[in-house]
Specification:
By secondary structure, this protein is α/β, with parallel strands linked by helices. It is elongated. Bound molecules: NADP nicotinamide-adenine-dinucleotide phosphate. NADP nicotinamide-adenine-dinucleotide phosphate binds next to strand 2, helix 2 and helix 3.
Length: 249
């Protein structure tokens, strides 16, 4: 019998959960538990880390998981690496449901950087109004560029004040609309947008808005992903499930 573990936290993971529930396929949805209000899922949900690779291996074995699906965010590099190692150790087949990276288009003013530190360096210079659309975890890195006014868009209100002397917080979660992001960038008179190359549609509106307003974007490239089978749509995951089940995996 199929018994799937989905590593979630993305719009795509939720779409997959919906497709599996509609087909009455047994699966559990796993959240890291980083945000306060978790999106409800039509599947049993578990929350929190597994305790490293060893913990994930134990989970796969004790819950008799037959298929592991990594539908985490492209910047969740550690979880993805653990998924590969646990799959190899247990022979539970793994597939990753990923989003193609965004690519710049005519009219964009992207400055592409390899990581958060390089994004911080790219903000050296005179004071600007900067939208930081990078989540909350890496905000402290920007404290070495205190001259800017930062607009922080966060899923939850921060527990403690971000270490940035001049900032505004907008609490909101995607998917975001073009009209909404145009209004936000105008209202806060943003000069430059800093974001991760997440891909997908839910957070792409800010890039179209930046293009229309002629704003600069500091685009943080993805970390390298481990060697694994990857697909970009839910149907491809369902095909993979059919194939691996027919093969008796
Ligand atoms: N990084 C981003 O920019 C971003 C953006 C949007 C959403 N997310 C989502 O937020 C979650 C955490 O991201 P992250 O960057 O902190 O990941 P990460 O650095 O790759 O993971 C750190 C640790 O968090 C736990 N973890 C991560 N995803 C998990 C999941 N789906 N279920 C159970 N445990 C999980 C694991 O703990 P153990 O080692 O104890 O198992 C993992 O080793 C991911 O699920 C991701 O999809 C991340």
């Amino acid at each position: 019998m199929i018994n799937i573990l989905i590593l979630g936290g993305t719009t795509e993971a939720s779409a997959l959960a919906q497709a599996l529930a509609e087909r009455n396929i047994s699966a559990t949805f796993s959240y890291a538990g980083r945000v306060a209000a978790l999106k409800p899922q039509p599947l049993p949900v578990r929350v929190g880390g597994f305790g490293g690779v060893e913990g994930l291996i134990t989970y796969l074995q004790t819950h008799r998981i037959t298929h592991l699906i990594d539908a985490t965010h492209p910047f969740a590099g550690q979880m993805s690496q653990h998924a590969v190692e646990a799959s190899q150790a247990t022979s539970v087949p793994l597939i990753a449901l990923t989003r193609p990276a965004w690519e710049s288009q005519p009219g964009d003013h992207w400055h592409i950087v390899p990581d958060i530190d390089a994004a911080v360096d790219a903000l050296s210079g005179d004071s600007q109004r900067v939208m930081l659309a990078i989540g909350r975890m890496h905000l402290p890195a920007f404290s070495v560029q205190p001259q800017h006014h930062y607009l922080l868009r966060l899923v939850d209100a921060p527990y403690s004040p971000p270490p940035l002397p001049k900032h505004s917080v907008v609490v909101d979660r995607g998917p975001f609309t073009l009209d909404g992001d145009l209004a936000l960038l105008r209202e806060h008179a943003i000069d430059v947008v800093v974001c991760k190359n997440a891909g997908g549609t839910g957070a792409a509106a800010k890039l179209v808005a930046a293009r229309q307003l002629g704003l600069s974007v500091i685009m943080i490239n993805r970390p390298p992903s481990p060697q694994r089978q990857e697909v970009h749509c839910v149907d491809a995951v369902l095909d993979w499930l059919d194939q691996t089940t027919e093969r008796g995996v």
